[in-house]
Amino acid sequence: MTIVAPREMERFLARPPAQTVVFLVFGPDAGLVSERLRALGKGLRERDSEALEVENFEGNDIADEPLGLIESAHMVSMFGGKRLLHVSLGSKSIIPALERLLKDPPQDARILIEAGDLKRDQPLRKLIEAHGNAAALICYPDSEQDIAALVDATFAEAGRALDSDARDMLLAHLGADRLATRAELEKLLIYTHGQARVQRADVEEIVADTSLLAVEGLVDAAFSGDLTEVDARLQRLRAGGNTNAVLPLLLRQALALHRARLELDVGKPLDAALQSLMRQGFGGSMRQSLTGQLKALSAPRLQQIIDAVHQAVASTRSLPQLAEPMLDRVLWTIARRSGRA
């Protein structure tokens, strides 16, 4: 039985064990599943120092006709090399075919099964995990440490420097899916081609949803009490996008700060309150500004801000034509209250 631990994953992919015949690569992160399948195929080729003949199968076809996969696995390659059989799992069970292959393993074929998230009690996962000549590779979404390591490795390989505040912003906006993360990093590297150093402004310009970044920057400026920055960011946002997301994010930040401020008031350390905010989805790039906001805003003042945002939301729902002036009013109210000692 081989369940590949995360700390062993890179070594396993680079040099898959010779006795392993069936590899199940699965998990909720489809991008990471795809990436590890490619790495596994590369590792098998490099381990055996030869090209692999690849054949693709659909899981539902195998369920309807198990002999197709079995015969292909035991077939002698036309060119004398080994064969790689890639199976995309469908809705039907392929266990009958796999049981026969695990009982009578092929000599010159390896089976790679690509699947989505599988619970512990799922029959396919239990079958693979119970056999010594099979391996289960679980692909969970990247942790913050995984994303940080990927960002650092990507820029090191490209020979590029990344400013610390740009790195913080990247980490705050990456991680939903491994392929999406790599795509965003590649986009950023292409956009900054020829630059020795990548800066925060580059990340704001190119990574992920730039309209969301613009809204988050506006909200943060308001809670930091920076009236000039609020005015500039609001004008840019209205010129290049819409402001529908501003009020919900204002309310989200006000509620989160209020909870953290109450924690401080009962003796919780500042670092602990900030960690609580990080767990609610506020990125590391905001740590400095959140620190200032927590110090500047009392719980009663934050409650007043929450009430003002609620009133603005209610007003714009009943009178949509007042949306712009109401947003201006609530942003300036927050900025003034945040900037007042």
Describe what is shown at a glance.
The protein is α/β, with parallel strands linked by helices and 341 residues long.
List keywords for this structure.
6-stranded parallel beta sheet, Helicase, Ruva Protein, domain 3, 60% helix, 17 helices, Rossmann fold, single chain, 3 domains
Integer count of domains: 3
Q: Please name the CATH architecture of the largest domain.
A: 3-Layer(aba) Sandwich
Percent range of helical residues = 55-70%
- Average pLDDT over all residues: 86
Task: Tally the beta strands.
Answer: 8
Largest sheet: 6 strands, parallel
Report strand order across the widest sheet. 1-6-2-5-4-3
For this structure, the quaternary state is single chain
- Rounded to an integer in angstroms, the radius of gyration calculated over CA atoms is 26 Å
From the spread of the alpha carbons, the general shape counts as elongated
Straight-line distance between termini? 63 Å
Query: What is the H/E string?
Result: EHEHEHHEHEHEHEHHEHHHHHHHH
As for the CATH topology of the largest domain, it is Rossmann fold
Contiguous helical run count:
17
Structural category: alpha/beta
The CATH first-level class of the largest domain comes to Alpha Beta
CATH homology superfamily name of the largest domain: P-loop containing nucleotide triphosphate hydrolases
Tell me what portion of residues adopts beta-strand conformation. Answer: 5-15%
